[in-house]
Design brief:
The chain is mostly helical. It has a single domain (9-117), classed as Up-down Bundle (Four Helix Bundle (Hemerythrin (Met), subunit A)), CATH 1.20.120. Helices cover 78% and strands 0% of the residues. The longest helix has 27 residues, at 25-51.
């Protein structure tokens, strides 16, 4: 695993700066969407892998990569990027370990984000 912080504090500060003085309401909204949506994208990974749907799989990995980058979840973004690249170039073989990594990183990210947003 890459040695990134679970959440990059600079990304959180950038999000806070987009709506200053709102008691982190904007940040909490963005985090809420991420916490709600990411499990759906992870489920898409599992389902599309089972169905052999490479395009859906790539879209799910890409979505996780982008949303993770927006929140500064750099390790999660890195694994999603690796998964997206692998599935795009090699296909859906040998991706189970990376999906497991994504799930583990997402669990860590959720814990950190709950500490940040209260």
């Amino acid at each position: 695993m890459p040695s990134y912080p679970i959440i990059n504090p600079e990304a959180i500060e950038i999000l806070r700066s987009l709506n200053p003085g709102d008691s982190d309401e904007f940040l909490k909204e963005i985090v809420g969407i991420f916490i709600e949506d990411t499990p759906l994208r992870i489920a898409d990974l599992d389902t599309s892998l089972h169905d052999g749907d490479k395009e859906r799989f790539i879209r799910a990995a890409h979505s996780i990569k982008g949303s993770s980058a927006n929140l500064g979840a750099l390790a999660l973004r890195s694994v999603a990027e690796k998964l997206e690249h692998h599935s795009n170039t090699v296909g859906l073989s040998d991706v189970s370990e990376m999906i497991t990594e994504i799930k583990a990183h997402f669990d860590l990210v959720k814990i950190e984000l709950s500490k940040i947003t209260g």
